[in-house]
Amino acid sequence: MLQNHVVMNKGLLAAAIITISFSARAQIKRTNPKVQPNVICIYADDLGYGDVSSYSATGVHTPNIDKLAASGIRFTNGHCTSATCTPSRYALMTGKYPWRKKGTGILPGDAALIIPTDKTTLPKLFKQSGYHTAIVGKWHLGLGETVAKNWNGEIKPGPKEVGFDYSFIFPATADRVPTVFLENHQVIALDTKDPIEVNYEHKIGDDPTGKDHPELLKLQSSPGQGHNQTIVNGIGRIGYMSGGKQARWADEELSPTFLAKAEDFIRENQHHPFFLYYALTEPHVPRMPATRFKGKSGLGLRGDAILQLDWAVGEIMNQLKSLGIEKNTLVVFSSDNGPVLDDGYQDDAVEKFKGHAPAGILRGGKYSVLEGGTRIPFIISWPGVIKPQVSPAMVSQVDLLASFAALINHPIPAGDATDSENVLNALLGETQKGRSQLIEQGLNNLAIVKDGWKYITPNNGETYMPLVGIETGNLSEAQLYNLNEDPAEKNNLAAKYPEKVKELATLLDAARQN
Ligand code: NG6
Ligand code: CA
């Protein structure tokens, strides 16, 4: 097992032979009488390292996210575990690396729940400590016991069974059926006369598909990428659904609806410690923001979706302020994987984004094992407790579980969340040293980073994904990069430092065995 490391900050904690959790709690008690801050985890979908202005974007402006960053810590080496959604979310919830478990890749919209219900999860940790917990937004971790399920009845297990008191979600991705909201165990706006059915194997019902009726589409799918099955709201989806005409959402209402539900939860729980996992869908495809954002960025619908995301973040921050709870609320802002421009629809992202580098200086993007795949915006703010700063500490979303366990002094049973390291001191800005080692997961490859050195295992998979225009990082020979000097992974130093390659390959093998 990878041990939960205790990271000592030599400067601040030199003589203290105490664990980080104790020191951090003492620190919190001194500066804030309320030792149980509310925690909001705002999670964007496919937002890249270079998509936020405080991280280098110039073509798109994100004043609200920037304000959050300026009020807290902007991490320059913050990571999701994986370059796609489901595995990163799995890690965030469980504190385990997803590649240890089969079936944690991108899930179809009818998948069964993949999070164990009998283990510690991030929401359970808070719930067991007396917090009220909620998820609002994208789930993408499966629902129910099996793929076959009755979408018109109670659907469980799901978010509630893994620790959320309240759940308002859509099941998978915005481009996958069923395009419905679920509140707790039920699809909302069900109609017994028009039952919902979902199928990922073959067409059901008589709804037109994007493949047969492209003339009905308001957003064309990209050639060769699918997204041409059941049409909902003028957009071809992955998967087939029939029925539930009244329950189907319009893409333009997703963000305002999620925001309203998140705000309701915050208002109702303002006098009580709460944990909110607010999982937005921007800028994932299909990018179809509320009408008032369309055309606003000048960068096409992807840019518009980023403006909508920024607006939603601003609304939450304003609400915290107006309720007078911003000083008692820790906000994490991050993304589930790196950026992609053409991910299945002809929405002008590629054409209009010329000059905008969604991964910033990093190489690769969504799907890749290169830094662009898993190094993403990572911001933590807790006004009055966290001192504003930019931190180079290497931190991962998989660490939130153990770190928040330390923050609220909740023990983690042995065997649970074993990949989650307690890096609370780094998350609170008391040290700029985070993890010493991190494993990064591309679509079909792993890399390990230690002390600024990154090793990518040799892999015969494609080096470039032509349809999405992304370098995967796959190469049939070993790759070694010095990220401190070469964050863009331009110079493969494997031939020059064979000992380093051997050391990191051995470490990665050992971590995989655990
Ligand atoms: C891919 C989809 C892509 C997106 C992704 C999931 C194709 C060709 N592409 O398989 O459009 O839906 O899955 O994205 O089907 S994620 O952010 O949820 O991982
Ligand atoms: Ca994603």
Write a concise synopsis of the structure shown.
This protein is α/β, with parallel strands linked by helices. It has 12 helices and 22 strands. Helix 2 packs across helix 10, helix 3 packs across helix 7 and helix 6 packs parallel to helix 7.
Distance between the termini: 5 Å
- Average pLDDT works out at 93
Structural class: alpha/beta
CATH fold assignment of the largest domain: Alkaline Phosphatase, subunit A
- The outline comes out as globular
Largest sheet: 10 strands, mixed
Summarize the amount of helix as a percent range.
10-25%
Number of domains: 2
Bound molecules: 2-acetamido-2-deoxy-6-O-sulfo-beta-D-galactopyranose, calcium ion
- Give the tally of β-strands: 22
Q: What integer value in Å does the Rg equal?
A: 22 Å
Counted by DSSP, the helix tally is 12
Ranges where pLDDT stays below 50 over 5 or more residues in a row are 1-34
CATH class of the largest domain, named Alpha Beta
Pfam families: Sulfatase
InterPro entries: Alkaline_phosphatase_core_sf, GAG_Ulvan_Degrading_Sulfatases, Sulfatase_CS, Sulfatase_N
Protein name: Arylsulfatase A
GO molecular function, one term: hydrolase activity
Provide a descriptive summary of the structure in words.
Residues 1-26 form the signal peptide. GO terms for molecular function: hydrolase activity. Residues 37-408 form the Sulfatase N-terminal domain. With 514 residues, this protein is α/β, with parallel strands linked by helices. The protein folds into 2 domains: 38-435, Alkaline Phosphatase, subunit A; 444-513, Arylsulfatase, C-terminal domain, CATH 3.30.1120.10. It contains 12 helices and 22 strands. It has helices spanning 10-13, 20-31, 63-71, 85-94, 122-128, 254-268, 300-323, 349-352, 371-374, 400-407, 424-427, 498-513; strands at 38-44, 73-75, 78-79, 132-138, 166-170, 182-183, 186-187, 197-199, 231-232, 235-236, 240-242, 274-279, 329-335, 378-381, 389-391, 395-396, 437-441, 446-450, 453-456, 464-465, 470-471, 479-482. The strands form 6 sheets. A 10-stranded mixed β-sheet has the order 7-6-5-4-12-1-13-14-2-15, with helices on both faces. Strands 17-18-19-22 form a 4-stranded antiparallel β-sheet. Helix 2 crosses helix 10, helix 3 (63-71) crosses helix 7 (300-323) and helix 6 packs parallel to helix 7. 2-acetamido-2-deoxy-6-O-sulfo-beta-D-galactopyranose binds at residues 45-46, 84-85, 106, 140, 173, 175, 225-226, 238, 284-285, 337, 343-344.
